[in-house]
Automatic annotation (TrEMBL):
Pfam families: YgjP-like. Residues 13-216 form the YgjP-like metallopeptidase domain. InterPro entries: UTP_pyrophosphatase-like, YgjP-like_metallopeptidase. This is YgjP-like metallopeptidase domain-containing protein. PANTHER family: UNCHARACTERIZED PROTEIN YGJP, UTP PYROPHOSPHATASE.
Length: 224
C-alpha cells in the first residue's frame, strides 16, 4: 500500500519526515531534492510511518464536545490545574485570582477566554523560549504563539519557533518540554538519539511530559 505524503521544499540542509496529529505525513526536503530520492527515503521509513499513523492513543479520533459555557461554577484548565469561573458585576476584562473572574458582559463569549489564553501564553511561554535558547546556545529568528491545530510547537526551516496557544493550559514542565523540543531542532533536525539526549538534558521530566500530553492532549485541543 502506498503512503500519501506532502512534500515541502526549503533551504534546509537535510530531509526530515514528520507525522502530524491528523495522521498526515509531511516531508521537508532541501530545494532540488528529486522526487525519486524522497520516495526512497519514505519507503525506507515505511514501517515506522505505519506505526506512527496507526498509533491508537495519540492519533485516534478525538471527541470534540462543544466548548464550555462561561457560567459561574464551570471550570477551565490553566497551567495544569482547573480553576472555577465566577461571573462578576460590571464590564472590563477577565481577571485571574486563583479563579476566573469574568464580567457579566462577557458571559457566553468564549472568544474572550481564547484571547485571554493567547495573551497569557505570550506572557509565560516566550520568556521560556529565550531562557532555553540561551542555555542551549542556539539562536532563532522569531518566537511567537500561534494556532497550530495539530501541533504543540514547530520549528520552521527559517529558524522561527511557533507554539500553540493551547499549551498554556498545560503544566509548566510540559511547556518547558515542548519549548526545548523545538529549540533542539535547531541543533539536530531529526529525532535521532542525539536529539533526545539534548532534550532530556534540558528537560529531565521529558518522559513525564510526553505521557501527560498523551493523556491530556484532547483536553488541550479544545478552544476553551
Amino acid at each position: 500500500m502506498e503512503l500519501a505524503y506532502k512534500v515541502v521544499y526549503s533551504k534546509r540542509k537535510s530531509l526530515t519526515i514528520s507525522v502530524e496529529r491528523d495522521r498526515s505525513i509531511v516531508v521537508k526536503a532541501p530545494e532540488g531534492t528529486t522526487l525519486e530520492k524522497i520516495h526512497r527515503v519514505v519507503e525506507s521509513r515505511k514501517l515506522w510511518l505505519y506505526e506512527k499513523t496507526r498509533h491508537a492513543q495519540k492519533y485516534s479520533p478525538l471527541p470534540h464536545p462543544p466548548g464550555k459555557e462561561l457560567v459561574s461554577g464551570e471550570s477551565l484548565p490553566y497551567l495544569g490545574r482547573h480553576y472555577r469561573i465566577e461571573l462578576v458585576a460590571g464590564d472590563g476584562g477577565i481577571r485571574f485570582e486563583q479563579k476566573f473572574l469574568v464580567p457579566q458582559a462577557l458571559a457566553g463569549k468564549s472568544a474572550a477566554f481564547r484571547n485571554w489564553f493567547v495573551a497569557r501564553a505570550e506572557e509565560k511561554i516566550l520568556p521560556r523560549v529565550k531562557m532555553y535558547a540561551n542555555s542551549l546556545g542556539v539562536t532563532y529568528k522569531e518566537a511567537k504563539v500561534g494556532d497550530g491545530k495539530y501541533r504543540w510547537g514547530s520549528c520552521t526551516p527559517n529558524d522561527n519557533v511557533i507554539f500553540n496557544w493551547r499549551l498554556i493550559k498545560a503544566p509548566m514542565f510540559v511547556i518547558d518540554y515542548v519549548v526545548v523540543h523545538e529549540l533542539a531542532h535547531l541543533i539536530e533536525p531529526n529525532h535521532t538519539p542525539r536529539f533526545w539526549n539534548i532534550v532530556n538534558a534540558q528537560a529531565p521530566t521529558m518522559d513525564k511530559a510526553k505521557a501527560w500530553l498523551q493523556k491530556h492532549g484532547a483536553l488541550l485541543e479544545q478552544d476553551i
